[in-house]
Amino acid sequence: MNNSSTSKVALITGITGQDGAYLSEFLLKKGYIVHGLKRRSSLFNTDRIDHLYQDPHEENRNFILHYGDMTDSTNLIRLIQEIQPDEIYNLAAMSHVHVSFETPEYTGNADGLGTLRLLEAIRLLGLEKKTRIYQASTSELYGKVQEVPQTEKTPFYPRSPYAVAKMYAFWITVNYREAYGIFASNGILFNHESPLRGETFVTRKITRAAARIALGLQDKLYLGNLDAQRDWGHAKDYVRMMWMILQAEEAEDWVIATGKTTPVRDFVRMAFAEAGLHLRWEGTGIKEVGILDSVDKEKFQSVTVLERQNFEHRTSNPEHRTPKIGDVLVKVDPKYFRPTEVELLIGDATKAKEKLGWEPKITLEDLVKDMMQSDLKLMKKDQYLRDGGYETLNYFE
Ligand code: NDP
Ligand code: GDR
C-alpha cells in the first residue's frame, strides 16, 4: 500500500459503476491515492476501471480495490479503519429506479442504511474531524412535481423505493453533519450519462439500440414512457463537482444540473439521427411508434464505411436487416412503465455556480454524439462476431 504522506487518500464506494470510474480517473490525476469498494461477483465486474488496475504485487500502488458491500457494517468499519480516508465518496447503490420496485427491501438496505453504516463508521472510529464524506443524492428525491426548476429548497416527494431510500440517506447525512460535526455533504445530482452508463438506463438503452439497428443487428427498440422529461448532463462534468463539494469551506447540500430538460422521445430522435436515421412519431400513448422517415445517406453510410465495411457488403448478407423507410423502429411497451413515475425534472444549479464556480461544459448534443460514437464502435464488434458465425448478446431490457 502506498503510504505517501503528501497524497490525499480517498475511498470510493461504487467504484465499478459509471461515476466511480470517472471519479477514479479524476482523483488519480489530482494525485490522490484511490481505494475502492467492489462487490464479489461470479464474473469480473471491473470493466469500467480495468484500465486503472494495478498489479497487487506492485509496491506503491495508488489504486487499490477491496471486497465489500454496503450491507455489511463490520466490513465497512474495518476498511475505513485500515484506509483512514481523508475523503469518502459514497456512490454505491442499487441505482435503477424501476428495479427498486422489484427489490424494495434490498434497495432500502443498501441505499438507505448503507449510508448510515458509513457515517457510523466515521463516528465510531473517531474520524469526525479527519474524514469528509460525499453522499450521492439524487433529483429523484423531488419525485412528484412541486415546482420547477428544482433547487436546494424545493420540497421532496419521492416516488419509488429507490427515492425513498435515498431520502433516508439524504437526511441521515444532514443529521450526522449537525449532530457530530462531520463534514458530510449531499450532491443532489440530476441525471448524468456517458458511454459508460449502465445499459438498462434509458439513454444508453437508446444509443445501444440505435447503433444496433443502424448496423442491422436489431429490428426494433421497445421503450416505456416517452413523455418523461429529464435534465441530462455528462458524468464527466458531474464527478468534478463531487470533488469540489468536498473541497468547499463548509459542508452543505448542492443541486447539480444543466437547467435544461428534454423528453425521452427527443433523446431517441437525436440518437437515431446521429446514426443517419430520421424518425417521425405517430400515434399517442402505448400506440405511439417511431417510424423511419428518411435516411441521411452520407451519415448512415459513414457508420459502416468508417469501420471499413461498405453499404453493399452489409446489405448483401441476408441476415443483415437494413432499416427501410416506413419501418417501425421504436415501439412503446407498457412493461417499462413504472408504478409511479417522475414526469419532469429540471434543476437550478445557481448555488453551485455562484459559490463554487461550477458549470457543466458538455452539452446534450455532444453527450448524444459521444454515446452514439462509442456504441457504434462497440456494436461493430458484435457485427464482426456475427459475420464470423459467432453468437452475440441479444439483451433488450
Ligand atoms: P451505477 O449503477 O453505474 O453504479 C452503482 C455502483 O454501486 C456499482 O459500482 C455497483 O456495483 C455498486 N453497488 C451496488 N450495490 C452495492 C452494494 N450493496 N454494496 C457495494 N456496492 C454496491 O450508478 P452511477 O455510477 O450512475 O451512480 C452513482 C451513484 O449516484 C449511485 O448512488 C446513484 O444512485 C447516484 N445517482 C446517479 C445519478 C445518475 O444519473 N447516474 C444521478 C443521481 C444520483 P456493481 O458494479 O457490482 O453492480
Ligand atoms: P431515472 O433513469 O429513472 O431517471 O434514474 P432512467 O434512465 O432509468 O429513466 C429515465 C426516464 O426514462 C423513462 N423510460 C425508460 N427508462 C428505462 N430505464 N427503460 C426504458 O425502456 C424506458 N422508457 C422510458 C423512465 O420511465 C424515466 O422516466 C436515473 C438513475 O441513474 C438514478 O440512480 C438517479 O438517481 C436518477 O437518474 C437521477
UniProtKB/TrEMBL annotation:
Name the UniProt record assigns to this protein: GDP-mannose 4,6-dehydratase
NAD(P)-binding domain location: 11-371
Cofactor(s) recorded in Swiss-Prot or TrEMBL: NADP(+)
Keyword NADP: yes
Molecular function terms, GO-annotated: GDP-mannose 4,6-dehydratase activity; NADP+ binding
Organism per entry: Algoriphagus faecimaris
Family: Belongs to the NAD(P)-dependent epimerase/dehydratase family. GDP-mannose 4,6-dehydratase subfamily.
Summary of the function given for this chain in its UniProt record: Catalyzes the conversion of GDP-D-mannose to GDP-4-dehydro-6-deoxy-D-mannose.
GO biological process assignments: 'de novo' GDP-L-fucose biosynthetic process
CDD domains: GDP_MD_SDR_e (cd05260)
NCBIfam families, per database record: gmd
Superkingdom of origin organism: Bacteria
Enzyme Commission number(s) from the entry: 4.2.1.47
